[in-house]
């Protein structure tokens, strides 16, 4: 049965999509069967992994998978044993569909279940087909994020070392606790990843220390710094990228820490 991990924080631009993409890649490289899910209407994870514009997936995305209650019909293969459930801008109509039954095509597809558990229930169709399901979320505490949290066993909280990200953390933690209490998967925070670190800035260093003082048992030891090859992953992707190794270097340590925490939880 797959282990589902969500990457989230409602503050924008904290490395959620990049890290979810890299983690999916590292899991795949390690021989695990992986399903990567993009539940953000920006479609950034979709473009990173598929190396195609997210508009290519109009009508063939996670939104239609939820509306038609069919995952397999909507997954896009990335590689052997690695699939993507893509997203595009039409995912912005998700909440309207849940509460009015109206789809973006103008059809009426009434939804009668629990609006927070749509993704969780949908994924039951494929949990036995993968070892890991990795979910990238939007920068908001929206219906998409609630669905991702309720569909996951574990959540990595992305912490970009800034004041506004620091303010976002407590409410995000509360959302994880809510998912734990009303969802069916005992959703837990598995750790806080300090990322996008600018080594030249003393305020960044101070925020990294502050979050470690607040959550000493939760921060990962690895701190991800800003590096050009990581930023350029959105241009070059994972295939035929000469600087891939340089980009992924620091993520290997995070990967090892995360897998070991997951294994400790399972033992
Ligand atoms: N370690 C890094 N070094 C350099 N650039 C990075 C790094 N991580 C992410 N980036 C770049 O920073 C920007 C924000 O990253 P990303 O899109 O992954 O964040 P996000 O949290 O998913 O954003 P959003 O909240 O909009 O979904 C992107 O342009 C990405 O390429
Ligand atoms: Mg993103």
From TrEMBL:
Pfam families given in the database record: AAA_31 (PF13614)
AAA domain sequence ranges: 4-179
Chain segments annotated as transmembrane: none
Superkingdom of the source species: Bacteria
InterPro entries with a match to the protein in the record: AAA_dom, DNA_Partitioning_ATPase, P-loop_NTPase
Gene3D superfamilies: P-loop containing nucleotide triphosphate hydrolases
Name of the molecule in the record: Cobyrinic acid a,c-diamide synthase
Species per Swiss-Prot/TrEMBL record: Domibacillus mangrovi
């Amino acid at each position: 049965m797959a282990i589902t991990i969500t990457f989230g924080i409602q503050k924008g631009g904290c490395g959620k999509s990049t890290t979810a993409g890299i983690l999916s890649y590292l899991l795949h490289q390690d021989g695990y069967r992986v399903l990567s899910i993009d539940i953000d209407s920006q479609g950034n994870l979709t473009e990173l992994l598929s190396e195609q514009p997210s508009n290519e997936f109009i009508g063939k995305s996670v939104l239609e998978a939820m509306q038609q209650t069919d995952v397999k019909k909507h997954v896009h293969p990335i590689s052997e044993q690695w699939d993507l459930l893509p997203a595009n801008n039409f995912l912005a109509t998700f909440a309207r569909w849940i509460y009015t039954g109206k789809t973006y095509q103008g059809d009426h597809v009434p939804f009668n279940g629990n609006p927070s558990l749509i993704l969780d229930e949908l994924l039951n169709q494929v949990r036995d087909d993968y070892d890991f399901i990795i979910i990238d979320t939007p920068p908001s505490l929206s219906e998409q994020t609630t669905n991702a949290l309720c569909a996951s066993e574990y959540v990595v909280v992305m912490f970009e070392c800034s004041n506004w990200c620091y303010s976002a953390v407590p409410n995000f933690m509360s959302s994880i606790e809510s998912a734990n209490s009303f969802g069916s998967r005992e959703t837990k925070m598995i750790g806080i990843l300090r990322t996008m670190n600018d080594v030249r800035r003393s305020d960044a260093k101070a925020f990294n220390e502050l979050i470690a003082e607040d959550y000493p048992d939760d921060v990962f030891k690895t701190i991800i710094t800003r590096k050009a090859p990581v930023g350029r992953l959105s241009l070059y992707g994972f295939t035929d990228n000469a600087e891939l190794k340089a980009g992924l270097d620091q993520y290997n340590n995070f990967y090892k820490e995360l897998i070991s925490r997951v294994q400790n939880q399972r033992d």
